[in-house]
Design brief:
The structure is a single chain. The chain has about 240 residues and is α+β, with helices and mostly antiparallel strands. Helix content is about 40%, strand content about 30%. It has an 8-stranded antiparallel β-barrel with strand order 1-3-2-8-5-7-6-4, surrounded by 4 helices. The N and C termini lie far apart (about 45 Å). Residues about 1-20 have low confidence and may be disordered.
Length: about 240
């Protein structure tokens, strides 16, 4: 009996630990390149930048290109122990002589990056940890939900209780869920899904929207009013050196 109780306590403790939300601080960075310079940026990241990031305590999570990339963009996610650690890491990276040499050599033919957008994020307990994808080719989907004022908690509850499993029912793979930090206004829900292809993604979304279980969950959650004001979606393909692919 004693062994059984001890095992039960350990199992319970492990279960609670496994559900703890990831405490790392995350950043999605989007680099928009000058025309014709995206390949130089990819080469710089693959050969040197990711290595120098890790040197300064920045964890490479994933690297992607939009499937429709008329803005010559590269998307990537880094993780840090904390916001303070993030700021120090970038300061040390920018001052690193190794990085300065790499940047200078890569830009002999001209500047590479035209502009940078950052989205600062914390993990959401919708999905406490980032999931690795199964084997095979994937198309990823980066989705941003802007809620009506005060409605983000309702959206999070709906995802936790219903949406997550309904996505899985329609063969959409849940990869990561974050809550953005905004300088002004309410935080947003941002998340990453994996699909077999863009065509399969469209089929999955059509089936999801028509699912009576989703319609019931949506209507019940919106008795006090609509939740989501705007949805933005970008389809992405992972680069060869991305950890998530």
């Amino acid at each position: 009996m004693k062994s059984f109780l001890t095992g039960l306590v350990l199992l319970t403790t492990f279960g609670l630990f496994a559900q703890q939300t990831d405490t790392r601080y995350f950043e999605m960075r989007i680099y928009y390149c000058y025309p014709g310079r995206l390949d130089a940026l990819i080469e710089r990241f693959q050969t040197n930048t990711t290595r120098i990031f890790e040197k300064h305590g920045m964890e490479n999570i994933g690297y992607w290109l939009p499937t429709k990339n008329d803005q010559h963009a590269l998307y990537y996610i880094l993780a840090y122990p904390s916001k303070t650690a993030r700021d120090k890491s970038w300061s040390d990276f920018s001052a690193d002589t190794d990085w300065k040499e790499v940047a200078a050599k890569s830009e002999v033919s001209g500047k590479i990056v035209q502009s940078v957008t950052s989205v600062f994020m914390n993990a959401s307990d919708i999905l406490p940890h980032i999931n690795a994808t199964s084997s095979g080719e994937h198309v990823f989907e980066w989705r941003t939900y802007t809620c009506l004022p005060g409605r983000l908690p309702n959206l999070i509850t709906r995802f936790k209780n219903h949406t997550l499993k309904l996505f899985e029912k329609q063969h959409m793979e849940n990869i990561a869920y974050f809550i953005s930090e905004e300088k002004e206004g309410q935080s947003k829900l941002v998340y990453l899904l994996a699909h077999k292809s863009e065509e399969e993604a469209i089929k999955s979304w059509d089936a999801f929207r028509a699912d009576p279980a989703w319609i019931t969950a949506r209507d019940a959650s919106e008795k006090e009013g609509k939740i989501v004001e705007k949805v933005e979606s970008v389809y992405l393909k992972s680069l060869s050196f991305s950890k998530i692919k």
